[in-house]
Amino acid sequence: MSASVSPLAPKRFPKMPPVAGVRIATAEAGIKYKGRTDLMVMAFDPGTTVAGVFTRSKCPSAPVDFCRQNLGGGSARVLVVNSGNANAFTGMKGRETTRITGEAAAKAGDCKADEVFLASTGVIGEPLDAGRFAHLLDGLVRKAEGGGWAEAGKAIMTTDTYPKYATATVRLGDAEVTINGIAKGAGMIAPDMATMLSFVATDAAIAAPVLQDMLRKGVGRSFNAVTVDSDTSTSDTLLLFATGAAARRGAAKIDDPRDPRLAPFRRALNRILKNLALQVVRDGEGARKEIEISVTGAKSSRSAKRIALAIANSPLVKTAVAGEDANWGRVVMAVGKAGEPADRDLLSIFFGDIRVAHGGERDPGYSEAETSAYMKRDAIRIGVDLGLGSGKATVWTCDLTKEYVAINGDYRS
Amino acid sequence: MSASVSPLAPKRFPKMPPVAGVRIATAEAGIKYKGRTDLMVMAFDPGTTVAGVFTRSKCPSAPVDFCRQNLGGGSARVLVVNSGNANAFTGMKGRETTRITGEAAAKAGDCKADEVFLASTGVIGEPLDAGRFAHLLDGLVRKAEGGGWAEAGKAIMTTDTYPKYATATVRLGDAEVTINGIAKGAGMIAPDMATMLSFVATDAAIAAPVLQDMLRKGVGRSFNAVTVDSDTSTSDTLLLFATGAAARRGAAKIDDPRDPRLAPFRRALNRILKNLALQVVRDGEGARKEIEISVTGAKSSRSAKRIALAIANSPLVKTAVAGEDANWGRVVMAVGKAGEPADRDLLSIFFGDIRVAHGGERDPGYSEAETSAYMKRDAIRIGVDLGLGSGKATVWTCDLTKEYVAINGDYRS
User: Fold this and answer.
1) From B189, B361, B410, residue closest to A93, measured CB to CB
2) DSSP characters for A352-400?
3) Cα end-to-end span (Å), chain B
4) CA atoms of B166 and B38, how far apart (whole Å)
5) What is the DSSP code (8-state) at residue A350?
6) Whose CA is closest to B135, among B63, B30, B206?
7) Is any Cβ of chain B less than 8 angstroms from the Cβ of A68?
8) Nearest residue of chain B to residue A413 (CA atoms)
9) Is A336 in contact with B59 (CB distance < 8 Å)?
10) DSSP H or E run through A139
11) CA–CA separation, A409 vs A285, rounded Å?
């Protein structure tokens, strides 16, 4: 783990209330780290529904395979997360570990095997011995309590320099419900020691297909709109649990995604997902600046997002921001390389509210001094208008610093 | 320009013979640099044919547009190249500059306007004033001489730490012909100060469509198989000229791409293209190691190349090599993110001849000490066998070092 906390870390952490129907416990299993927790268990009340979104990697980890298989049942009772070892590219041994862990968790939670969900994060290719922690699950489920969100956020960290929390309370029918989320990054930055995991839980009563629909749509403008270094982890996992406990207090039971009572919940969920995703970017390894890239005027939203990601993943754009250099020529380069419809002579580029390029050339009113002053900020906004259509997209990333190279290049030495 | 020469630079430069029908001159036009040449003119004998391959950027520079337009004629008499300013994203002014330069070059070379070819490399978005050098063209064409390849290679440099040359002599029918090439990089590393330009000339007599066919096929395993930072320049230009002068000495005149007498020439051309492309990679900004990535066993060659490029462009793989870390988990990650058919459990990964992973997990015979020793070399080979089919591809890149970030991040400061 990094010695110093990211300068972009939140100034304060939110106080995480309990979520009715969710109990949490953590432990020091000593999987890799010493003197810190590395095992986290969430136990859910009977009737808890679940939705999930996973890495698009063609080489997913064993726990991702395990979760994908269980997601079909739509029901969750136990979540087990370990840090220190990703159980990725571990072959038959990896599958054996998820089987043993899953069985131990089902026994501990007194539930069916397909009501267990697993996530692992840490080194790739190193066998993860279930014997290190499977025997702890029974005790953890037993002692799990309604609080514990703060501890949960810490137990799942790897190269993160701070734990990531978000919470919201929102009306759903005749009662208020709570949504809590935790995440760990730091981006896809270091898949051998990090990955993107996020767990969100609510006491709302929402059917699994509705949860899945909301989550799938919600990630497009949150977790799937952030990038640190374009490197996709084998293990990215986002799970959303709904215990339904609030129904006893009068909260609406939702089983139709078009139910109008769901609108405030959906907005709150999307805010939480975006909040957590941005915390991941701000903890990107070596990050000193957050970069928001908005593309408008594209042929389609899909095209806009591809162009935005080409800019966000460009090492030259990211190093320029690190150097506080308003190098819009590199933005032109990145637009050009995206392979999407673009017309050089219709392009406008903005840094913050300053239009630096317009109509295929440098803006006549361009001021080097004004733009340079803007580049000194912590959060940089890059805007590109393609002038072709109405497609738009926004993505977030961080700058590329020498510290990134040091962390990822000097890691084993 | 960088102060120190890349440690991967060639130990010695080849002696470049003249190419009959090609005359060269250079000048200090003072476009941006002081105390060095920044303008290069090649004058070709009447009857010279030409082929070209250009950037795939959707925002190409004005000279790229200009060359593409003239390429249809298949005939070349004058090439004008400047360094210091890319004339890219310069709008109407940029087109005006290519028009003025083209007319001045045609007048100087006593040829048609569409027999002129232009290339510019340097800053993006800064208007390039043709008045700085158009008046020099007449004198340059007049004084151009048969030698001058060494000077030509230097005049086109931007952030390159060494000039790039390659030459070959090969039989074509009843006589020997010469092929000379020069290139500048340093990769697509710094499109605001660099780009990939290469100019190859021969005294062989080869029809333009045949040249174009050979060049198009030749770039797939050379210039289009190298990457420094995945950032595609607005200005990449590769031109191939054939003066036909050797026909007077008995060299065959070729107008059919299937002519069997062409085979040795084609092989020599491909060697030159690969040689120049590798010199560009070895001069990648901050590069300390060359990386060759070979993918075999893919569903198709196209699929193999996409996977190879995903590995080559992964910041995590490149920083691991910089840190001399045999981090094959990051190679698995990059295979997974490529989006191409891959089966984790059939994957084998090699560093040099050492198989580090096999059958979905770490190789049982893996030796950390042996692999770490291998990683200390200057040139690292990464092999991936997918075990799915017979598609294969090889690409080349360099490592990602703190020096890269320093060069590209601290550039303006």
Assistant:
1) B361
2) TTEEEEETTEE-TT--HHHHHHHHTSSEEEEEEE-SS-SEEEEEEEE--
3) 14
4) 21
5) E
6) B30
7) no
8) B323
9) yes
10) helix A137-143
11) 12
Degrees to nearest 5, angle at CA A250 with A246 and A251: 55
Residue B94: closest CA among chain A residues belongs to which residue? A361
A22-27, strands of its sheet edge to edge: A22-27, A39-44, A78-85, A116-123
What SS3 state is found at B171?
A: strand
Question: Which chain A residues are Cβ-neighbours of B368 within 8 angstroms?
Answer: none
Distances B330 to A188, B310, B321 between C-alpha atoms, Å: 11, 11, 11
Q: Which residues pair with A44 in a beta bridge?
A: A22
List the 385-404 stretch of A: residues with Cβ below 8 A of B. 400-402, 404
Contact residues, B window 340-359, toward A, CB-based 8 Å cutoff: 340-345, 347, 357, 359
Contacts of B90 in chain A (CB under 8 A): 360-361
Contacts with A68 (C-beta within 8 Å, 6 or more apart), sequence order: A52, A54, A60
Nearest-CB residue to B231 (from A124, A125, A314):
A314
DSSP character for B166? E
Of B195, B227, B234, B237, the catalytic one is B195
- What SS3 state is found at B163? coil
CB contact residues (below 8 A), chain B span 113-132, against chain A: 123-127
Tell me the residue type at A240. L
Residue B358 neighbours by CB under 8 Å, 6+ apart = B347, B348, B349
Alpha carbon distance B381, B396 (integer Å) = 9
Asked if A57 reaches chain B (Cβ–Cβ under 8 Å), the answer is yes
Q: Which of A338, A340, A118 is nearest to A235 (CA)?
A: A118
Backbone angles phi, psi at A3, to 5 degrees: -75, -35
Retrieve residue A198's tokens.
């996020």
Listed residue (B192, B185, B373) closest to B286, CA to CA: B185
Strand-pairing partners, residue B168, are B179
Interface of B with A in 6-45 (CB under 8 A): none
Please give the span between the terminal C-alpha atoms of chain A, in angstroms, as a whole number.
Answer: 14
Closest CA to A289 of A2, A3, A1, A6: A6
* Sheet of strand B237-242, all strands in order from the earlier edge strand to the far edge: B49-54, B237-242, B197-202, B175-184, B164-172
ipTM of the complex: 0.82
d(CA A320, CA B196): 20
How far apart CA B348 and CA A75 sit, in angstroms, is 37
Q: Check if the beta carbon of residue A152 is closer than 8 Å to that of residue A43.
A: no
Cα distance between residue B86 and residue B192, in whole Å: 8
> Do residue B230 and residue A89 have CB atoms under 8 angstroms apart?
no
Secondary structure E strands in B9-123:
22-27, 39-44, 49-54, 78-85, 116-123
> Are B325 and A412 a contacting pair at CB < 8 A?
yes
- Catalytic, B232? Answer no
Give this prediction's pTM. Answer: 0.85
CB A200 within 8 A of CB A174: no
Q: What is the pLDDT along chain A (413 residues), one digit of tens a residue?
A: 445 888 889 999 999 999 999 999 999 999 998 999 999 999 999 999 999 999 888 888 999 999 999 999 999 999 999 999 999 988 889 999 999 999 999 999 999 999 999 999 988 888 999 999 999 999 999 999 999 999 999 999 988 899 999 999 999 999 999 999 999 986 554 334 457 899 999 999 999 999 999 999 999 888 888 877 777 778 899 999 999 999 999 999 999 999 999 999 999 999 999 999 999 989 888 889 999 999 999 999 999 999 999 999 888 899 999 999 988 888 988 998 888 999 888 999 999 999 999 988 889 999 989 999 999 999 999 999 999 999 999 999 999 988 888 877 764 43
